[in-house]
Amino acid sequence: MSFMSLRHEGNDMATRGLEVGRALRDLIATGAYAPGSRLNENELAIALKVSRTPVRSALSTLAAEGLLVYRPNSGYSVRPFSSRDIEEIYAVRAELDGMAARLAAFKGLSDQQRGAHHRLLQESGELIAQDRWDDDVCQRWRQVNSAFHAVIHEAANNAYLVQAIHQTDEIPFFALIRFKWYDKEMLRRSHEEHVEISDAILNRQPSRAESLESEHVYRSGRRLVANWRRIEEQIRRGKCFESAVLSDAA
Q1: Which residue, among 186, 184, 205, 77, has the nearest Cα to 137 in the 3D structure?
Q2: CA–CA dist 92, 165 (Å, integer)
Q3: Each residue of 132-145: pLDDT tens digit?
Q4: What is the pLDDT of residues 36-56, one digit of tens each?
Q5: Which domains are delineated in the chain?
């Protein structure tokens, strides 16, 4: 979403606030607003060609989501987040999700859980068959992927383990960029890995299930870390898009 398009979208203040919020999330996710950078309400309103009211609303919403930090007499800034944070999150997730897969394989899936895995693998296969990657496919894949892993977490039947996994899901920046650099090839690879993980669980192979799931999560994290490190390098070199976006849209 570009800044220029916002002035033509939305018929009321609430809609404009949502559009401003969406644009800011995109800019944070691409590093255009670097971690720690301050967001000026007046400059944003001018750049977006909207009043300060929807900008103020969007900033408040993003702060509530944990993407921004608000300090009295200073205003809003992007919450600091680094590739090291991503690396550490995925190191934890690889262990937790691997444990969940091992427990699920050891305890076994119910008939309902077996059916759910079969259906979800069919759905992801259908997405691959479309041979495209766009917002609609991405949204559906996010749902299918989440549901696939939720079945494993449920089958693990360990409330403390599931709670720990959910805590990482709720880290704001992690949720924002998790699927940012996905494409149809990565969808295909993830589907193939899901097939193998499901096979190990269904065949009651705890060690294999744990290994496959941990590697699956590790690969996802490695991709995110590599991409965010490139953005960090661009920021260090001064190739941040913030100034260009603001001047082009003014």
Answers
A1: 184
A2: 9
A3: 999 899 999 999 99
A4: 999 999 999 888 888 999 999
A5: 4-80 (1.10.10.10), 83-232 (1.20.120.530)
